[in-house]
Amino acid sequence: MKIPLCTFCLRTGVLCPRCESLVRSGQVTERDMEVMKVLLDLENQFPQLRDSEYVRCVESDRVLVVLLRGLRGISRSLLMKLNKVLEDKLGKMVRVVDVATSFREGIEQLVMPLAVLGVNVVWFPDGTSETVIRVAREARRSIFSPRELESLISAVFGTKVRVVVEG
Ligand SMILES: [Zn+2]
Description:
Elements: H1 7-12, H2 17-24, H3 30-41, E1 53-59, E2 63-69, H4 76-90, E3 93-98, H5 103-111, E4 116-123, E5 129-136, H6 146-157, E6 161-166
Parallel strand pairs: 2-3, 5-6
Antiparallel strand pairs: 1-2, 4-5
The structure holds zinc ion.
C-alpha cells in the first residue's frame, strides 16, 4: 500500500525530516499512523490493499471512515470483511471507502450494509439544490441514523446531503 509516510519511518516511529514535517503540520495524524500500520499488516490477508493508496481517515464519535484510493476488484463481501477486521483491531465501527470510485459507489461503501436506493439532486425554484440519498431500512437493526450519515457524508465527500430512510 502506498502511504504518505516512508514505510520504514512508520514502522520504527523514528521519523525522517520529511515525515516529521507531515506529522507536525497535521497532514498526517497519530490516528492515520495507527490505521496505516494496521492496514500494512493486512496486505497478505487482503491483497487488494497492496495496490491501493492511503488517503486519510475521517472520524465521528462512533464511526471511523478510512479513505483509500484504488481498491480495485474488491467485492462488497470482502470489503465488509475488511471493515470487520479493522473494527476488531481499532475498537470502533469502521467503513473503508475508495475515493477513486464514483460518488454513488463511495456512498454505497460508506452506508454498508444498508442498500442505497437512489442518489438524486433536487432543484428548488430559487435555483438552489440538494442531494438526496435514499437508503433502505435495515430490517434487523438500525446501523446508522440519517443525521449521522449526513454528517459523515459531508465530512468525507464535502457535499451537503439529506438522507432519507425508506421501506
Ligand atoms: Zn520518512
